[in-house]
Amino acid sequence: MKFIILALTILGLPSLAFADNAPSNEEMTREIPTAEHAFVDSIPYFDKAKIVALIGEPSFKADSTDPDTGKIDASVWRYHYLNTNESGEYYQTTELDFVEDQVAVIVFMNNDGEDVPNDAVIAKPSKKPDL
């Protein structure tokens, strides 16, 4: 019995620590923060549908599908001028890499190797940068 209680305690501690950083339900329905550190802390809690509802469609989207099932296994989404660094300057591109429906990797880039068109969609929650 002591072993079971000890095991449950040990297994539960990481989830409790992780839960402290989780945004509240109210925060998850309002907005996704644009400051890079707050963004990294909160974005894994949002699925694709919620991200699109809060910040709109990405400027670039590529999906990887399972050839047998046709199911989307992974996706790469890019947004322009969505996130700011600690100085308040916008990153040219934010890339979200998904595994199934959840964000797995976040990349902030000042140059993604492609020219950003003048009519690129600037994500909804950001302020328009001074270009």
Q: In order across it, which strands form the biggest sheet?
A: 1-2-3-4
- Low-pLDDT parts are 1-19, 126-131
Secondary-structure content class: alpha+beta
Number of strands: 4
> Strand portion, in percent?
15-25%
Written description of the protein model:
With 131 residues, this protein is an alpha+beta fold. Strand 3 and strand 4 form a beta hairpin. The chain has one domain (33-131). Helix content is 31%, strand content 23%. It has a four-stranded antiparallel sheet, with no helix packed on it. The chain has helices at 2-21, 25-30, 36-42, 48-55, and strands spanning 60-65, 72-80, 93-99, 102-109. The termini are far apart. The chain is globular, with a radius of gyration of 18 Å. The protein contains four helices and four strands; from the N terminus they run ααααββββ.
Write the layout of secondary structure elements.
Blueprint: H1 2-21, H2 25-30, H3 36-42, H4 48-55, E1 60-65, E2 72-80, E3 93-99, E4 102-109
Antiparallel strand pairs: 1-2, 2-3, 3-4
